[in-house]
Amino acid sequence: MEFLIIFFHCLLLTTGYLCVQGSSHHRHQHHFHDSHQVYGFRPTKLFVFGDSYADTGNIRKSFADSWKEPYGSTFPGKPAGRFSDGRILTDYLAKFLGLKSPVTYTWMNLGKQKWLNGMNFAYGGSGVFNTLGDLLPNMSTQIDFFEKLMNDSVYTKWDLQSSAVLVSLTGNDYGTYLANGGAFQGLASFISKVINQLEANLKRVRRLGARKIVVTSLPPLGCLPRSTETSSFQKCNITENIAVSYHNLLLQQAVAKLNNKTGNSTISIVDLFRSFTTVIEQRQDYLGNLKFETPLKPCCIGKSDGYFCGSVDDKGAKMYTLCHDPKSVFFWDSSHPTEAGWQAMFTTLKPSFDRILKYQ
């Protein structure tokens, strides 16, 4: 572990990027990295690709606890496939754009009227590469789904040109890499492969006609409850966050390169790293009066090893504990924010969304 810290520290310093968590670099970087503005219209639809931070119900019920109680208890009042007690990033972005949250690809047959707000192709647990064999559509496959709808004239190139696109990539590729025995020494090389594939995906979406794409930076994975549990949810894992910083650096470079080729900022980064750390450090909600007293401790947690939020035993007994009020807690489960957590973060991001996605 010590080797990894030294390795990434040296690696990042040689690229001119100071990656110490909470450094002045992070405190002063913008939520979005853009060099030019493109004005003209307000997005009329929202298209979404990615993972559980954006999935509003695509993943199969047999695959995920997100379809089990107590998920969805705040909104819509029952499990609906969101990895939270309620609304997530996609919902808040749609509301910001004045749209209803786009229908999920899996449920698109509910009616054409629901296609008017765009469509959500994100699947919880997915990445740019396969993360669960071929059981989960990776991002390339998700884009295939969309391109087929365009070929079938469900959506046109103008639909995409006049819309916003959200691309969420928040770490499943790395979890799969390590779970499959990937060596720490090879992690830097694998991060480069992930970014290269993400760059290819962004280029492809733009080639299909997208003019406004927002892609997430990695959140501080070392601050997720699954990583802070060993410290009784008291402190973040610095080693993981150093690796996250390297991913985010390469992402900035890739986006800058893509934008330079077109001469405008078609693609922008929504800085989840900054947003997470801001809210966690402030320990309060967007109004400043409802504090997240223990921001690293989740609301819903398994009672013992092998159990998770939503787990039940053979007799159907709940094998998880639940906090008294999800609105007072930042994290919902081992990896995902509560609705209140997402609301607090979206508020920190709103000025950037105003600049990038609202047109005068």
- Shape category: globular
Question: In percent, how much strand structure appears in the residues?
Answer: 5-15%
Which bin fits the share of residues in helices? Answer: 25-40%
Task: Tell me the radius of gyration.
Answer: 19 Å
Number of strands: 8
Q: Would you tell me the structural class of the helices and strands?
A: alpha/beta
Low-confidence stretches: 1-40
Count of helical stretches: 11
Q: In sequence order, what are the helices and strands, one letter per element?
A: HHEHEEHHEHHEHHEHEEH
Distance between the termini: 50 Å
Strand order of the largest sheet: 2-3-1-4-5-6
Q: Oligomeric status of the shown chains? A: single chain
Average pLDDT level: 87
Largest sheet: 6 strands, parallel
The gist of it:
This protein has helices at 2-14, 24-28, 89-96, 139-151, 157-161, 172-179, 187-208, 225-228, 238-262, 272-282, 339-357, and strands at residues 46-49, 103-104, 118-120, 164-167, 213-216, 267-270, 300-302, 320-322.
